[in-house]
Amino acid sequence: MAKLLMKFLGMSLLLVLFYVPGTAAAGGLFGPPQSLSREKGGLNTTVGFDYHEDKFEGNGTCVFRQNRVYSQVAYGGARHLWEVYGRIGIADLEIEDGFRSRINTTTSSPDDFEENETPFGALGAKVFLPLGGAFGIGAFLQGSFFFGDFGDEVRGHWNGAPYKAELNVRDLWEITSGISVSATAARGIILYAGPFIHYSEARVTSSRHVSGIPLLEEDATMKNKTEIGGYGGISVPLGRGFHLNAEGRYSERFSAGVAVTYTYQNGGL
């Protein structure tokens, strides 16, 4: 088991070192490297909220902002050495200045792209290696996909003539991997921090192509601009099997979230 853990950690570290610095990420919190299931292994469930920002390039450069609410079911192995989990949730999407014109002959209203309540899902896995005492190191891999399209309309004038166009953001997905070191303090409080890599992609299409507004000029595939960041957080036992997790992530943009996890003391089975 230790050899398998070291191979997983080594591969994740190589991925982190391979990429050049980068952006904030993900379909929810990464969480501490060790599972929050009971010592013998078993189920835990989570509800969480995450505020997420990411900078994308394709037709120009723009910032994607999302509020994500999700629930998670996880199964952790004995001694907190591994965990697999699945998530489902809903998210909105705002693209700052997504409709803002860059030329005087084109006007637009509104300036920002906004859409609400699109479902998403995520799958992930983590492994953990105790280092002795209160310390340990772990790695995770997490992928997310949005099941619906995000869409919004813009109106304005182009060369003096009125226009209306609908912009759709389709097939938004992301994959993230990271490594963190954790320290367990008094009363079971866990502190953790480390680097991550992140890749995200979406297809942007418009019902009408309009000059002067980059996202409307042509259909394109948008990708996150940069790929490395750092994250850190704290997990605090609340009693009766509950844990509060708060986490922040930063590179070019800042993202943060909170989650509450319940550990099933009978293993959940």
3D architecture notes:
The chain is mainly beta and about 270 residues long. The chain has a single domain, classed as Lipocalin. The protein has 2 helices and 12 strands. The chain has helices at about 1-20, 215, and strands at about 40-60, 60-75, 80-95, 115-130, 135-145, 150-160, 160-185, 190-205, 220-225, 230-240, 240-250, 255-265. Strands 1, 2, 3, 4, 5, 6, 7, 8, 9, 10, 11 and 12 form a 12-stranded antiparallel beta sheet that branches. β1 and β2 (about 60-75) form a beta hairpin. The longest helix has 17 residues, at about 1-20. The radius of gyration is 21 Å and the shape is elongated. The chain starts with a helix and ends in a 6-residue tail after the last strand. Mean pLDDT is about 90; it is low at about 1-25.
Would you spell out the secondary-structure blueprint of this structure?
Layout (H helix, E strand, L loop, with lengths): L1 H17 L23 E17 L1 E17 L5 E14 L17 E20 L2 E12 L3 E9 L2 E24 L5 E17 L7 H4 L2 E5 L3 E12 L2 E9 L3 E10 L6
